Amino acid sequence: MRYKIILSSVVAAACLLNGPANASLTLTPEGIAGGFTLTTFVSGFSAQYGPLAQGILPNGNIVTGSQLDQKIYVFKDLDGQTLSSAVSAAPYVCQTGNCNYAMAAAGGNVYGAQAYGGFYEKFDSNGSRTQIPNMVATDLRGHLGMWGNPVNGHLIASSNLGLVDIEPVAGTYRIIKAGLFPDGVSVSPDGTTAYVENGVIQEYEITTGSLLRSFPNFGHGPYGTGVISGGPLNGDIIVNNNDGTVGLLDPTKPDGDPNQFVLIATGGTRGDFVSPDLTNGTLFLSQNEQVARLSCGPDCSIGAPIPEPESYALLLAGLALVGLMVRRKNLT
User: Fold this and answer.
1) What is the chain's mean pLDDT, rounded?
2) Angle 63-194-228 (CA atoms, 0-180°, nearest 5)?
3) In whole angstroms, what is the distance from residue 35 CA to residue 296 CA?
4) What is the 3-state secondary structure of the chain?
5) CA 164, CA 331: separation in Å to the nearest integer?
6) pLDDT(23) > 80
7) What are the residue ranges spanned by the domains of the chain?
8) What is the dihedral of CA 6, 53, 319, 325, to 10 degrees?
9) Does the pLDDT at position 87 exceed 70?
10) Nearest C-alpha neighbor of 224 from the set 294, 140, 129, 175
11) Is it true that domain 9-331 has CATH number 3.10.20.600?
């Protein structure tokens, strides 16, 4: 088994400061041995699908949506928040059959679309939105899932025309694979490969649209994915599952190998999309009632290239502040 217990003092300190992971989604022994940590970013959502996706705004805040009250929320990039912690909450009009937002950060901005037919839009810092220029009159609409290509700032998205590559500044697009309508999209840190949920996890070459590999059905209902960059699990894939579990997929192992897919967290509700926190290398995991945060430690990143060292230092400083506040509260 590839898992190694990471004894880094940095990771250990982060675990102590954050206390237990969220009350439902909990790391398995394999997840702990793999060096992962799990915390709650925002709780208090209540809807069938919860918040589907998140994006990093240019000012460093996090934007996400809530289908229940049809609002776009903006939060500080801190753990342990509730809906009342939001910096802003902007209402929006439901325009599709599933009006929760898929969204992704690309090229320093956040874009999104309501599922099953929404226009592609750009998010402002307060959660308001404007349609991407030159795409208002096109026949392209959002379907389910999108991801920012970290190399060129494009959006790789599931649309009504198939899997597409969108240049959001110019408002142009190219069809990668017509007839492919995945529920969940992510991009490898090198920008060459798209991982999509199509009943199972599939791997497509972005340039040609060629199917590179289709992984087995492991029986947990996969949705969002994020590729690990760096560290002992480099190249492995995080899978957020519909049955309330989180898995780790090792693409170097052959089908049928018992260690090809292992559960690193269980006990959650309904897992859906995931989104990378580009500032610190962690991964947001959407659940029905909350957004959890998964970290693989200081020497790796999930869903994006490894951030600069000072970004991780800022995250640890924030965790230390939260721990100090908790200790002060317990002493009063």
Assistant:
1) 87
2) 70
3) 6
4) CCCCCCCCHHHHHHHHHHCCCCCCCEECHHHHHCCCEEEEEEECCCCCCCCCCEEECCCCCEEEEECCCCEEEEECCCCCEEHHHCCEEEECCCCCCEEEEEEEEECCEEEEEEECCCCCEEECCCCCEEECCCCCCCCCCEEEEEEECCCCCCEEEEECCEEEEEECCCCEEEEEECCCCCCCEEECCCCCEEEEECCCEEEEECCCCCEEEECCCCCCCEEEEEEEECCCCCCCEEEEECCCCEEEECCCCCCCCCCCEEEEEECCCCCCCEEEECCCCEEEEECCCEEEEEECCCCCEECCCCCCHHHHHHHHHHHHHHHHHHHHHHHC
5) 54
6) no
7) 9-331
8) -140
9) yes
10) 294
11) no
- Judge contact between 178 and 159, C-beta under 8 A: no
Give yes or no for a contact between 118 and 141, defined as CB atoms under 8 angstroms apart.
yes
Q: What is the tens place of the pLDDT at every residue in 168-212?
A: 999 999 999 999 999 999 999 999 999 999 999 999 999 999 999
Alpha-carbon distance of 196 to 185, in angstroms, equals 5
- Which region holds residue 16: left if phi is over 0, alpha if psi is between -120 and 50, else beta? alpha
- Does residue 248 surpass a pLDDT of 60? yes
Model's pTM, two decimal places?
A: 0.86
- The tokens for 184 are 């969940």
Nearest to 240 by CA among 18, 38, 21, 15: 38
Q: 158: which strand partners?
A: 163
Taking only the tens place, the pLDDT of each residue in 97-134 is: 889 999 999 999 999 999 999 999 999 999 999 999 88
Counted residue by residue, the chain has a size of 332
**Spatial CA neighbour of 230 closest among 278, 191, 281, 180:** 281
Of 241, 261, 244, residue with least CA distance to 253: 261
Residue 326's pLDDT band, with cuts at 50, 70 and 90, is very low
Cβ–Cβ < 8 Å for 70, 93:
yes
Q: Judge whether residue 321 has pLDDT over 70.
A: no
Report the C-alpha gap between 162 and 167 in whole angstroms.
16
